[in-house]
Amino acid sequence: MTDTILSIAGVSKTYAARGKAPAVTALHAVDLDIRRGEIFALLGPNGAGKTTLISIVCGIVVPSTGAITIDGIDTQTGYRQARRRIGLVPQELATDAFESVLATVSFSRRLFGRAANAAYIEQLLRDLALWDKRNAKIMELSGGMKRRVLIAKALAHEPDILFLDEPSAGVDVALRRDMWNMVRGLRERGVTIILTTHYIEEAEEMADRVGVIAKGKLLLVDDKTALMKKLGKRQLDLTLVEPLAAIPPELADWHPSLEHDGHTLRYVFDATGERTGIPSFLNRLSECGIAFKDLETSKSSLEDIFVDLVGERP
Ligand SMILES: Nc1ncnc2c1ncn2[C@@H]1O[C@H](COP(=O)(O)OP(=O)(O)OP(=O)(O)O)[C@@H](O)[C@H]1O
Predict the structure, then answer these.
(1) Which atom of ligand 1 is nearest to the CA of 24?
(2) Range(s) for CATH 3.30.70 in the chain?
(3) pLDDT digits over 274-296, tens only?
(4) Which CATH class is domain 233-310?
(5) Distance separating alpha carbons of residues 77 and 194, to the nearest angstrom
(6) Which pLDDT tens digit goes with each residue over 132-182?
(7) What percent of the chain has pLDDT over 70?
(8) Any idea where the ABC transporter domain is (predicted)?
(9) Domain at 4-230, CATH homologous superfamily
(10) How many whole angstroms from 26 Cα to the centroid of ligand 1?
(11) 13 CA: nearest ligand 1 atom
């Protein structure tokens, strides 16, 4: 039996109409169980309902229907008890710009009624490369450092569950790598991590399990490896020297298509399979005397994947 730390049952949210803006149903009866100690990625395009779901779990937004329990504690009836189990790293910093890093992070700990622990806060700031900046005011920090402060604030009260809302948005490669390392370190210490993202690469790199959400519906939840197999399509585009009017029958085994008025020959393959079929495809092209001047491979986009999954554009 798997050990569930967070249970989301039948959660819907409709934001009421305001002025001329119509009512929006951001979530439709979402059921989801999060396992203790896993890294779970909630993958979906803009406006899918990811932030709404996180905000409901954190008690910032009230659901229209459904219930959430954290280790059996209902987040509405046992709000304070449930909330202290959670750390939330939001997309943006809404904190006092004139406060120092140390004061801001220490305050976050007190907010949840935890006794002061200077050694823990020091270690946390050191882990996030913020210790040297502990006396700097928030407004004096770079964007990357502000991001680290958000993480430190979320971890200040030693939560069991950490939510990261779009951790990669607006973050450079170095910080992203540090953040991923830190997340893995937290998981090793037993923290359950839930992140939202619209980058497949991020889900692929980080998660044990992935949930795909679009238009407020949770379309599927699967182990990462199983899902990546389903999603792992790539395409090879060859820019031809001479355009083709039709696909030569000799290439039929690879089911290629012609794009850009016959100037591009496209072959879609499974990047996770043992064989991609590319070498044999290129050999056959050469045997047929079809020359190309450029070649490019790309991953299928999240949008393509959604089209595959739900048969419509998100
Ligand atoms: N306070 C609000 N009032 C009205 N509608 C809202 C409110 N917050 C979100 N919505 C709407 O709910 C839907 C889901 O938004 P949400 O922010 O949860 O999506 P998201 O998946 O987090 O997207 P993003 O990646 O852009 O943050 C959107 O249509 C959005 O416009």
Answers:
(1) 5
(2) 233-310
(3) 788 899 999 999 999 999 999 99
(4) alpha beta
(5) 23
(6) 999 999 889 888 888 889 999 999 999 999 999 988 877 778 888 888 888
(7) 91
(8) 6-240
(9) P-loop containing nucleotide triphosphate hydrolases (3.40.50.300)
(10) 6
(11) 12
